[in-house]
Design brief:
alpha/beta, Thiol Ester Dehydrase, Chain A
């Protein structure tokens, strides 16, 4: 990858797209020479770089390369001097782009790739005034450029095939997904799809069929979630379980002619077209059966929903509210004369590391779930959290004793080791079904924090009564062998 990654690129235009390109290249260790003449260019791009750094820190734990240098220049010649790739991102006006790209072609080195970020203009139109037009392609990105990986590569009539190959290697080296268009077409692929949805959304608001909020919510809470996993054609393919791709197309195709939308002109579903759809759909599925595709879809949807939940956004917020209602209704814990017992759960496949074992963070997560369940058991619900406060972990000790694998049935047993008006000490034992000894243990110290002050404060009301009663019951249990154990050498 380092051999394909350029050392220096020249960027023309410093708006949302140009600034995004600057952040993408700089954070991937590429030097950038940026031409942008509008007021506030320097501050705007530097702020975008700050945003991109923050996003990358959350995106991956893998260390990034040393940042490339960002240099602001005053002329086209300075921007393209000594670079391996030029990325044009000026406003979407054909005459402006033609004039600028022609100027670039006259001063850039003959081997320099020249790429345009245009969102819809065909590259053949952009090439007409250029010297060496064979080195120009469209490289259409998506905002924010530093995060969204797709870049559509489109060749013009004069573009050399090797230009596309070189460009694809460069964009791939900075973490992008280059998609080479088969034919030159206005708007390329993504924007033609986006505009079809956008056009219909505008008509719905125009005709008072929906508000802007309702249109956006429909997308965010339904098919928008699926689009991160599979596109529209593959989605319809698995809509009829245990059915071939061709049968799905035959089943759903006629509905496209119903007058549900403003845009109802559709291609005729001839045998030849159905065969093409089925062949390409089967190839895309990589020999996975419908049930296998459904499981893959579900696993990916779970990951998307959990990511949204972490941000309190859209369908993730809905998931969080549902979970809270489940907790407020009280977990189905078994108390009796022993520790509280969480319901048994099966280890899912995405909880494992490269060696096929459960990761440390997942063991901690199981302990955290058990703690949340205990708090709900003693009455710490949404109302209590808002009006009084809640418990927060200040210290955790985790011990791994046995490996856990995908499909294992695991239960967590929780014992209160001690409790007073402000502190709560818990001990968790992770048990695999069928084992006599624990797979892991976790010990936690929690402090009760007041909602009003954000500081440590006494537990109150029924929660206090239930907690102290449970603590008295658990005080009669044997103290776990590993409770209070410290880490030491020798």
């Amino acid at each position: 990858m380092s051999e394909r990654r350029p050392r220096t690129v020249g960027l023309l235009g410093a708006g949302v797209i140009g600034g995004g390109w600057a952040a993408r290249f700089v954070l991937n260790g590429v030097d950038v020479q940026l031409l942008g003449r509008s007021p506030g260019t320097t501050e705007r791009v530097r702020q975008m770089l700050v945003n991109a750094r923050r996003a990358y820190q959350r995106l991956t734990p893998v260390p990034l390369p040393a940042e490339g240098a960002l240099t602001f220049v005053d002329s086209v010649a300075d921007a393209v001097r000594g670079v391996e790739l030029v990325q044009e991102s000026v406003p979407e006006r054909l005459g402006l782009k033609q004039q600028l790209l022609a100027a670039v072609s006259r001063v850039a080195a003959p081997e320099t790739l020249i790429c345009s970020s245009t969102s819809g203009l065909r590259p053949s139109l952009l090439q007409v005034e250029m010297d060496q037009p064979e080195r120009l392609i469209v490289a259409h990105p998506f905002n924010p450029v530093y995060l969204v990986p797709l870049v559509e590569l489109c060749a013009g009539q004069s573009t050399a095939p090797e230009t596309l190959l070189r460009a694809a290697e460069i964009y791939r080296s900075v973490g992008m997904h280059p998609l080479v268009l088969r034919k030159e077409v206005d708007g390329f692929i993504a924007n033609r799809l986006q505009e079809a949805v956008w056009r219909e959304a505008l008509w719905m608001v125009h005709d008072d069929l929906a508000t802007v909020q309702e249109v956006d919510d429909v997308v965010r809470y339904s098919f928008g979630l699926r689009r991160a996993i599979m596109g529209p054609i593959q989605t319809y393919r698995i809509a009829i379980p245990e059915t071939s791709a061709r049968r799905s197309m035959e089943r759903w195709g006629p509905a496209l002619k119903l007058p549900w939308t403003k845009l109802i002109e559709v291609p005729e579903l001839t045998d030849a077209f159905l065969d093409k759809l089925a062949e390409q759909s089967d190839s895309q599925a990589e020999n996975l059966t419908i049930p296998e595709l459904e499981r893959k879809r579900d696993d990916c949807l779970v990951a998307v929903l959990q990511g949204l939940r972490a941000q309190g956004c859209g369908a993730g917020e809905t998931l969080a509210r549902w979970e809270q209602r489940l907790l407020d209704r009280g977990p189905q814990l078994i108390n009796g004369t022993g520790p509280l017992r969480m319901p048994t759960r099966q280890i899912p496949s995405d909880w494992l590391d490269g060696s096929g074992q459960i990761t440390e963070s997942r063991s901690l997560q199981l302990c955290g779930i058990a703690t949340d369940n205990l708090l709900s058991y003693i009455g710490v619900d949404g109302g209590y959290r808002s009006n009084v406060g809640s418990y927060y972990t200040v210290e955790t000790h985790l011990s791994h004793l046995r490996d856990l694998y995908v499909g294992d049935q695991v239960q967590v047993l929780t014992q209160v080791l001690g409790a007073d008006d402000r502190r709560l000490q818990l001990f968790h034992v992770l048990m695999r079904k069928g084992d006599e000894g624990p797979a892991a243990t976790g010990e936690q110290m929690l402090v009760h924090v007041e909602a009003s002050s954000g500081r440590s404060g006494p537990v109150q009301g029924k929660v206090r009564e239930h907690l102290l009663k449970l603590a008295r019951l658990h005080a009669e249990l044997p103290r776990p062998d590993r409770a209070g154990a410290s880490i030491r050498l020798g």
